[in-house]
């Protein structure tokens, strides 16, 4: 099954190129953590973040709220900038064989901004596509709630698969060869069966890994160390590699093992 082959290829891609994955993701990740910690200290939210749970019931002051607000906005910008920096670099490494030089991948601001713009566009498409279901929900919520739940489930699955098809635009943008919505849709026609398998397999894999991580985290002292790198490096890159593999197969016409 092609869905299984895409998933297997994506996992192998990350494990087979683990050193390159480290070179691409490790230092940007450390930079991001340092910036977030520094931001928390500058905005005065560091002490609040470190406060014991017993203090969380106390009434926050206006200073606390303003500090958290500033921290939240800039923290989101920092987090996604680092994520897109890593993702774009990984797409380019796989598709263009752009080997990482040293431990700091190039920061390609134009590609990162383009990638971010496409993410926003896909999010907007998703929200617009949910409007008909929202209207239907309002009409039928009282008369046929069971039917609404069932219909909503299948509508959500169909919407996810459609966005999956359009997501091949992301790797294309990362390597500087953007494609249109129509091209992405046409290139991935007759792939719904493949995407359903891929969706199911990826979901099961994520659940299994999360359970394993939960068990490992229970190990005293070394539990966090055992989970940290896989959770921030391997899993995200496997998800990104799925899009990279789909782009290679359906847009560039590549073969996979």
What does this structure look like?
- It is a single chain.
- The longest helix is centred in the first third of the chain and has 35 residues, at 62-96.
- The protein has one domain.
- It contains 10 helices and no strands.
- With 257 residues, it is an all-alpha fold.
Question: What attributes characterize this protein structure?
Answer:
257 residues, mainly alpha, 10 helices
End-to-end gap: 12 Å
Number of strands: 0
The percentage of residues in β strands lies in under 5%
| Low-pLDDT segments | 52-58, 61-66
Using the CA coordinates, give the radius of gyration.
21 Å
Number of domains: 1
Mean pLDDT: 84
Shape label = globular
Helix content: over 70%
Q: What kind of sheet is the major sheet?
A: none
Structural class: mainly alpha
- Helical stretch count? 10
Question: From N to C, what is the helix and strand string?
Answer: HHHHHHHHHH
Could you give the topology of this structure?
Blueprint: H1 2-16, H2 18-42, H3 46-49, H4 62-96, H5 109-140, H6 145-166, H7 169-174, H8 181-187, H9 192-217, H10 223-250
Helix pairs in contact: 1-9, 1-10, 2-4, 2-10, 4-5, 4-10, 5-6, 6-9, 9-10
Summarize the structure.
The chain has 257 residues and is mostly helical. The chain has helices at 2-16, 18-42, 46-49, 62-96, 109-140, 145-166, 169-174, 181-187, 192-217, 223-250. The protein has one domain (2-51, 59-250).
């Amino acid at each position: 099954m092609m869905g299984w082959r895409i998933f297997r290829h994506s996992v192998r891609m990350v494990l087979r190129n683990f050193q390159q994955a480290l070179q691409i993701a490790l230092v940007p990740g450390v930079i991001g953590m340092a910036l977030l910690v520094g931001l928390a200290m500058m905005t005065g939210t560091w002490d609040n973040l470190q406060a014991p749970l017993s203090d969380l019931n106390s009434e926050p002051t206006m200073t606390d709220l303003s500090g958290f607000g500033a921290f939240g906005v800039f923290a989101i910008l920092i987090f996604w900038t680092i994520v897109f920096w890593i993702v774009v670099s990984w797409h380019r490494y796989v598709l263009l064989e752009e080997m990482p030089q040293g431990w700091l991948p190039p920061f390609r601001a134009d590609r990162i901004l383009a990638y971010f713009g496409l993410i926003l566009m896909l999010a907007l498409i998703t929200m617009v596509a949910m409007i008909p279901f929202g209207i239907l929900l309002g009409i039928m919520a009282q008369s046929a709630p069971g039917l609404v739940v069932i219909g909503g489930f299948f509508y959500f699955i169909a919407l996810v698969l459609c966005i999956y098809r359009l997501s091949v635009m992301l790797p294309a943008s990362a390597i500087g060869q953007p494609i249109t919505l129509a091209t992405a849709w046409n290139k991935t026609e007759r792939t719904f069966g493949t995407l359903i398998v891929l969706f199911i397999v990826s979901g099961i894999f994520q659940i299994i890994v999360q359970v394993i991580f939960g068990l490992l985290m229970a190990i005293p002292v070394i539990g966090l160390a055992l989970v940290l790198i896989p959770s921030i490096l391997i899993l995200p890159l496997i998800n990104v590699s799925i899009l990279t593999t789909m782009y290679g197969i359906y847009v560039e016409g590549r073969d996979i093992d």
